[in-house]
Structure of 3-isopropylmalate dehydrogenase:
Amino acid sequence: MKIAVLPGDGIGTEIIAQAIRVLDALELPFEMETALVGGAAYDAHGHPLPDATLKLAKDADAVLFGAVGDWKYDTLERQFRPEQAILGLRKNLGLFANFRPAICYEQLVDASSLKPELIAGLDILIIRELTGDIYFGQPRGRRTAVDGHFSGAEEAFDTMRYSRPEVERIARVAFEAARKRSKRVTSVDKANVLETFQFWKDIVTEVGKEYPDVELDHMYVDNAAMQLVKAPKKFDVVVTGNMFGDILSDEAAMLTGSIGMLPSASLNASSQGLYEPSHGSAPDIAGKGVANPLATILSAAMMLRYSLNQEEAAVRIETAVKKVLAQGLRTPDIFSKGTTKVGTVEMGDAVLKALA
Ligand code: NAI
Ligand code: MG
């Protein structure tokens, strides 16, 4: 099992270090190799995704990614910015399925602004298609008068588009994921107004016939946005397009209280995947030893489940995280009165102990 480890920038190195300790403690035959990515790679090699890093990622079964970016790179030309590394990896590895679980640990309900009974025990999985939709459809542009500036343009447009294979493959991913959970899929669309999403709905329905054991329903995106806040526990697996998924996954993230707790995965057709916390490099707290490593540790658990076929080890990690929260240990981002404040390394220590 080959794992490419790309810590990146800011808190990336601190949180990845804790995830590595946890993986090491499992005593499974992992081959882990680390490489530079993002701003760190730009500083050393003049590119955020050097060829050697890309090759390492391509040759691995999974990529464990920290975070990239820092304000100091904001003035660079777009292609050299740290965040381009993620886009480059997505594109080169063909990562088309983005998994964003929203889990609300009982112990953390206080950290959310929502009513405890709405979110306690929440465990949903949003699957966002990542390569199609209005973000990539052609043609796109603007009808402009003379110069090329938006301010002088009369009109701008993008194209919403999905092909049959694109919808089929993301639908399959969703049904397969549901089989490992409570066997329910909600497909989110806007079929009442958009051709693209009537098409989406029809294809998902077709694919659903191959999974008679999984219950499928459909929901309009505006209603889904409302239901996520009103009764989020109604959902299990939610599958949707690139743009709706972008918005709904951020909405779902906020149900759970802290961005420091949320893992994510992006998968390709051969179950090769990139696993990373949903948050960024947090330059405001980098180097202070206070970042929450749990999102990254939970991303490592997802990696075990979805790319490395080690369900048991994945559950072991997730159980250890729950134990640590039950012990009342909290990094500052999830701290509340009556709990014990710990730093990044102490949180790692506690997870290691809870694994045993
Ligand atoms: P951010 O997610 O890095 O930080 C937002 C806020 O959440 C900050 O106050 C930060 O301290 C806090 N936070 C984030 N992760 C945390 C953790 N594990 N523990 C405790 N607190 C945590 O988003 P922001 O500030 O918008 O972006 C900072 C940099 O990260 C930018 O350069 C941005 O482009 C990059 N970024 C990179 C991503 C990636 O690598 N996938 C994703 C999002 C942003
Ligand atoms: Mg977003």
In short: The two ends are 22 Å apart (CA to CA). The pocket of NAI (ligand 1) is lined by residues 11, 15, 67-70, 83, 86, 259-260, 276, 279-285, 291-292, 295, 333 (CB under 6 Å). The chain has a mean pLDDT of 93.
